[in-house]
Amino acid sequence: MPRDNMASLIQRVARQARITFRSPAGPAFGENLHRLQQLLDEVRAEDLHLAPRGPSAAAAAAGGGIPWGGAVPPVSYMHICETESFSMGVFLLRSGACIPLHDHPGMNGMLKVLYGTLRIACMDTLPPGAAAPPPSAGGGPCHRALYRSRQHYTPASPPCLLSPHTDNLHQIDAVDGPAAFLDILAPPYDPQHGRDCHYYRLLEGQPPAGAEPPGLPREVWLMETPQAADFWCGGEPYPGPRVCL
């Protein structure tokens, strides 16, 4: 059964997000961010009227008017609320789905797993250096980056945090089944203000079979790429408690 405070918890999260990101350069930002992190850590799937589901449920939720040749999108988004300072919603990933490596220019963010397991790779962009990108790169622009971490997150994990300069690039994979996470971005994406989403490909080969993967953190090269043809994000109605700001 949902908890008694389910109707107020997501509202409290939204209000704290508004307070926190209204003045991200202010003296109280760190304290407000910590409070937001604490509230976000309390959120569970049942608070938003969500439950894990398989492919058949995902197809039913997508509805009959699917504009992708009848295919069910690998990822869906449930919009909860948006202001000039932040946006909040839920991403739902089908089993095996991946949100490709992408950036959040000049943005803060918080991600809390609601159900399932996510593998999240986090990277930072680095200033240009003297070294040249790999000769086989070709294609789009190449960027130096620091591959910081690659961890599994579950509903028992604390929120994954990103800032404009730390862990700003993410790749998110659903592991061993469907997964969902609550997502806060501050400020929201806005191409007219330089906050557009860019996608990247890691320029390094796979280690030989049986070999240990390279250690982290380590410096890597990323190539900017178009959005992958097999990745798109559908939309679904948000079934949880209403949020008013």
UniProtKB/TrEMBL annotation:
What Pfam families has UniProt attached to this entry?
PCO_ADO
Keywords, A to Z?
Dioxygenase, Iron, Metal-binding, Oxidoreductase
GO cellular component term, pick one: mitochondrion
- Please name the GO terms that the record assigns under molecular function: metal ion binding; oxidoreductase activity, acting on single donors with incorporation of molecular oxygen, incorporation of two atoms of oxygen
**Domain of life the protein comes from:** Eukaryota
Q: Which InterPro entries match?
A: PCO/ADO, RmlC-like_jellyroll, RmlC_Cupin_sf
Q: What is this protein called?
A: AEDO dioxygenase
